[in-house]
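Weekly sync notes, structure subgroup
Attendees: PM, AL, DS (notes)

Item 1: joint prediction request from the bench team. They want all two components modeled as one assembly rather than separately. Inputs as received:
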Amino acid sequence: MVNESTMLKLAVCVKAVPDPNKADQVKIDPVTKTLNRVKIPLVINSLDKHSLEAALQLKARLGAAITVISMGPSEATSVVGECLAYGADLGYLLCDDAFAGADAYATAYTLACAIKKLGPFDVVFCGRESSDGATEWVGPELATFLDWPVITMVKEIIECSTSEWIVRASIDGGYRVVKVALPVVLTVTRELNSPRALSFSSILKARNKTITVLNIKDLDISEENVGLKGSPTIVSELTCLNNTRVCEFIEGTTEEKAEALIHVLVSKGVLK
Amino acid sequence: MNREHGPVLVIAEQVDGHIQPVSLQLIGHARKLADGLGSQLEVVLLGENISALYPLLIAAGADRVYIGDHPAFRTYHPQVYITTIVENTQRYKPEIILVGSTFMGRELAPLLAARLGTGLTAHCIELELDEKKNLVQKIPAYGGLMSIICPERRPQMATVAQGVFPFPRMDTTRDGEIVNIEAPEIISSPLEILKIVREEPRGVSLESAKTVVAGGAGVGDNEGWKLVAELAELLNAGLGSTRPAVDAGWTGIETMIGQSGKMVKPELYIGIGLSGEQQHMVGVIGAKVMVAINNDPKSPVFKRVDLGIVADCKEFIPVFINEYKKYKEME
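Output from the run, pasted for the record:
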């Protein structure tokens, strides 16, 4: 039996992002200068699946309580629900008009407030980056607001107990092995695991789980610190790039194309 | 408005006593920003046995160098580095802080930004001052460039990848002030670095490759990716990728080219099964001749290259490899 008091308490931060396959339809709202995602279906950020998988594996191995937290519009409910179907225990959506337009700083602040309220947690998992923002900032900034350590780009959990973990994390051209006393924020890479597929029976089981929506009052935070108002950075302008290259198509059969391409590249002095 | 601007600060980085190329490139560009602001350029560098490095930083353009030379700084430790940087570099209230998009920079910059309560823009490809002397930080987005500013808080912070800015002209006659950073008090930290391992790089280095072969989602599967890798090896080329190819698990993140990956400047770039996403294409802007191979004649990538082949890559690459081998035999 798993002892409740020594069971790991894990939080997984997930982001509902515009479907990357349709991301080229995303437009900028000229008034708020934030992304207009109205017509793009939202999916779970792909790296966040690896975060969730890490938590699910720990739950199976050691016993753990998994809380999924997402900040987003009401459409993001489905993404939290998906995480519950995978096996997370509790799901929270931080949803309020005041949260809209947040940059990484305001997002990290809002998540930190939720984590303080919903905790205590031993480990908070974040994907290293999101497919839409791609800043990598939320994990480290969240850790700073919590006054916890962070380890970024974790690709292996080597040892874990309820007090101390040892992980392997990427660095330029190699890796580092880090020991950390909990609590900690970890940002994860794809190498950490292979996320499982969702089974029909788990979807059915998750139907009874509820998703709790928390607004700015529930979190007891000031409007000044969240959303567009709480964001130090703003988008000031969008510009187009001029394409200076003109494409010459090489026609013919596959063999003719290959031969002609070699000929052109050799004559331009870029192929030997 | 305060007319006096604080300094521009570059967080430099060394690995095993070698200054990182991006640090010198950042100093070169930061010099222009500091001159534009009428302010000073400061550089902070932490490490062990690094006294040989500070003349480089001054020659590259620094007015003031904060040097921390101590065993405690030998390798990057987040708490030790952040505490030291905050305690030693905030006296003159930096207007701008620039950090390289290295592993260390990607972790240190957001820790520092949150600690200083300010904004941070990721992996910029242009940094310039507007008429109000705000730092305009440009990143590729939605087929163009998105300008980001941090109008009310200071410092304004940005990360920049290696290769975005050129190396500065080194002027060894320049003078600069050296400020020694004392060894930190023992900083109690829940985090301990047990081991750092640097692996031997495999294949041709992307940054210095004369030829780069890059694949994207249109490569299709692992089999398709093997063909791309085979072509790269045959041409003695650096193997590059787009984010979707990395996301598909065909290749590692170290091969990713673009805004949040590597910047390359080859003589020849061959992009295979990729759509010409801005985030990727900004990484190859400096290529001399660009080729795209894509089965969709309407793919936007063909607007970004010099030579286009409309073909299925799985059919085309083996034929090309064969034709190239024939050409080499005839030579």
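Discussion: Chain A has one domain: 4-225.
Action: AL to compare against the crosslinking data before next sync.
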